[in-house]
Description:
- The protein is α+β, with helices and mostly antiparallel strands.
- The chain has helices at 2-16, 39-55, 63-68, 75-78, 91-96, 165-178, 189-198, 211-224, 253-264; strands at residues 28-32, 35-38, 60-62, 81-89, 102-109, 112-120, 125-130, 134-137, 140-141, 155-158, 181-183, 203-208, 227-229, 245-250.
- The protein has a 7-stranded mixed beta sheet, sandwiched between helices. A 5-stranded mixed beta sheet has the order 11-10-12-14-13, sandwiched between helices. Strands 1-2 form a two-stranded antiparallel sheet.
- Helix 1 packs antiparallel against helix 2 (39-55) and helix 7 runs parallel beside helix 8.
- The radius of gyration is 18 Å and the shape is globular.
Amino acid sequence: MDRVAEILxxxxxxxxxxxxxxxxxxxxxxxxxxxxxxxxxxxxxVIIGRRLRELLPVPVVGEEAVAADPDLARALHSEPxxxxxxxxxxxxxxxxxxxDYAVMTSLVRSGQTVASxxxxxxxxxxxxxxxxxxxxxxxxxxTRTPAAGGPAxxxxxxxxxxxxxxxxxxxxxxxxxxxxxxTPGRNAAGVExxxxxxxxxxxxxxxxxxxxxxxxxxxxxxxxxxxxxxxDGSPYRPEAPGCEDGLLVAADQESWxxxxxxxxxxxxxxxxxxxx
Length: 276
């Protein structure tokens, strides 16, 4: 666990942090419509992937490698173990010079996340989690207390970018009417999940759930005592892009159940169709 945390911090110090607020012309590219990447993302992924394979020689499913070759993500289902790597989570924040970004990896065995690591360079904060063993912040055990009061007192984030328009309107209205405060989030799962684990947020509803974004934080939250589950109640498992959408993360099971009820209202409660 410690060595992987060191690998993330080392790669960050080598190629990510030196470019924070110092990206040169030509070091930011569009990899897909509306999706950007930097040289820091690409270089960090190469370094992290190589060093992880020295620890455990299994396939590395990295965000940038999958962008170039989507078939690489099949390893999540075809291989007994894989490393997932998000070299710069919150790339838009990184480009804009905002400190809400992270470097993340997780280890997936037989389709289940068994260990995860999140490094937040701006605050030199390391989050780690191991299945069945707990979650930590800089070596201190994290325990998420249940959400206090009821929905009218809770603070949450609604990530609505990839929602179908009708469902977006429904969820936004229900959220505005039912909760104490709703934020748009911080544009970085590696910052948002720790916010739930440490109590700054009581819940988050995500829609698009790319595995490198959600495997690390989901394990962190659940090992701290929270819940990360699909809208039909099934526990989160990392899926290849496009396989699953809709994920509700909450402080505890009761707040998960009540948040889901408030957000969905009368919307059907089975597994939702993908919203693109």
